[in-house]
Specification:
Layout (H helix, E strand, L loop, with lengths): L1 H23 L1 H9 L2 H14 L2 H18 L2 H10 L4 H25 L5
């Protein structure tokens, strides 16, 4: 349980730091938020817990394929906000779009024999 709490604390501190920096400097905060910190931390924790090379390779490759359909969300949300849509609806639409794109990505990759 202590190890889990340590992982949660370190991971949470990085997210909190990014949001605090973004309050003062939007561009720098966005740069920090765009870093694949969650992915890197996830890989570090997975490696420390398993040292399983095939699992790490599979995890890393799957992460790549899931990042791609999440990118349009970062275009849709500002577009919607600039058109007068409120933050929460814009965020919801962005997340729903991402979920639909995840499903489409998995479907397309399956047709090409790639399982994620």
């Amino acid at each position: 349980m202590g190890y889990f709490l340590l992982k949660a604390l370190i991971s949470g501190l990085l997210v909190a730091a990014a949001s605090e920096i973004a309050r003062r400097h939007a561009g720098f905060g966005a740069l920090i938020a765009s870093l694949p910190l969650v992915s890197v931390l996830g890989m570090i924790w997975l490696w420390r817990d398993t040292t399983d090379v095939p699992r790490m390779a599979e995890h890393s490759a799957a992460t790549f394929f899931y990042v791609l359909p999440s990118l349009p969300m970062f275009l849709f949300i500002p577009l919607l906000l600039k058109r007068g849509i409120g933050f929460w609806p814009a965020l919801g639409i962005g997340c729903l779009t991402t979920i639909l794109l995840y499903a489409l990505t998995v479907s397309l990759l399956t047709r090409f024999g790639i399982r994620i």
